[in-house]
Amino acid sequence: MSLASEHIGSAWGFKEELRKLQVSLTKIQAVIHDAEKRQISDESVKTWLLELKDVAYEADNVLDEFGYEILHQKVESQKRKKVRSFFSPSNPIVFPFKMGNKIRSINQSLDRIKTNVALLGLRESSNPIPKIGLDRETDSFIDDSEVVVRGDDVLKIVNLLIGANNQRVISVIPIVGMAGLGKTTIAKLVYNHELVKKHFDVQMWVCVSDNFDVKRILREILEILDNNCSGLENKNAILHRLQKELQGKRYLLILDDVWNEDHEKWDSLRSSLLGVNQNNGNNILVTTRSDNVAQIMETSHRHKLEKLSEDE
């Protein structure tokens, strides 16, 4: 079989492999609650969780990459005049081949993990979807050539931000949706939108991920505003410097990939931000997969992303 035939054959099995991945993750998530309780006293369960975390991180990245590619391919007709390299990530042959290999590898790992579920005696839980600790890192940069089919979503969020209630010191807008729908990409496009840049005096991007550490988030915000503050560890000192940097300014803060459902942690961050800047018209844009995260933030608007239909 030629290499080209292998590429095409890989593309044929791509959708089925993706379905298998999603089913496997759902089944494994059902036993994570039991595993997290038992890992304290059972080293085998602890090892199982560590292996799952590694595979889940890979799967999460693949789902996000796949979701963005759906968005990208939707507008391919708008870019017909541009020459696309055979080795481009969006090449209709190379991309399925590459993704097919990635997903098959992850599925093989998940098969081993699922086998150990029975061996370890892990039980399913009816609790809400538990968290698999993921240490991710994102940034606000986006290529000028990147185009997204969810242009309507971007414009709606931009309008929410610049038309927000200026009688409030902080307005919070969450973008909520499952993995792979392009939440971070949409947030980047909003962050870099010309109307947004003109509206806010200061813009800050913090990838929160699984670790909602209030002092870490505040310190990262400060480091964006002042590169000479990287050594500060005392929270009170951080807040004093933030107050100096944000005084008299209207800001936009992006909190990307938020998982925290602890109301007290969110209240602590919000109180700190209210303390350093009392100007009206500040906004926090949050990306999250969890409706619970959006609820505890007491938001006035919530932007829910839905799955793209097959036609889209």
From TrEMBL:
<dbReference type="GO" id="GO:0043531">
    <property type="term" value="F:ADP binding"/>
</dbReference>
<dbReference type="InterPro" id="IPR041118">
    <property type="entry name" value="Rx_N"/>
</dbReference>
<feature type="domain" description="NB-ARC">
    <location>
        <begin position="153"/>
        <end position="312"/>
    </location>
</feature>
<dbReference type="InterPro" id="IPR002182">
    <property type="entry name" value="NB-ARC"/>
</dbReference>
<dbReference type="GO" id="GO:0006952">
    <property type="term" value="P:defense response"/>
</dbReference>
<keyword id="KW-0067">ATP-binding</keyword>
<protein>
    <submittedName>
        <fullName>Disease resistance protein rga3</fullName>
    </submittedName>
</protein>
<dbReference type="Pfam" id="PF18052">
    <property type="entry name" value="Rx_N"/>
</dbReference>
<dbReference type="InterPro" id="IPR027417">
    <property type="entry name" value="P-loop_NTPase"/>
</dbReference>
<dbReference type="Pfam" id="PF00931">
    <property type="entry name" value="NB-ARC"/>
</dbReference>
<dbReference type="InterPro" id="IPR038005">
    <property type="entry name" value="RX-like_CC"/>
</dbReference>
<feature type="domain" description="Disease resistance N-terminal">
    <location>
        <begin position="2"/>
        <end position="82"/>
    </location>
</feature>
<keyword id="KW-0547">Nucleotide-binding</keyword>
<keyword id="KW-0677">Repeat</keyword>
<dbReference type="GO" id="GO:0005524">
    <property type="term" value="F:ATP binding"/>
</dbReference>
<keyword id="KW-0611">Plant defense</keyword>
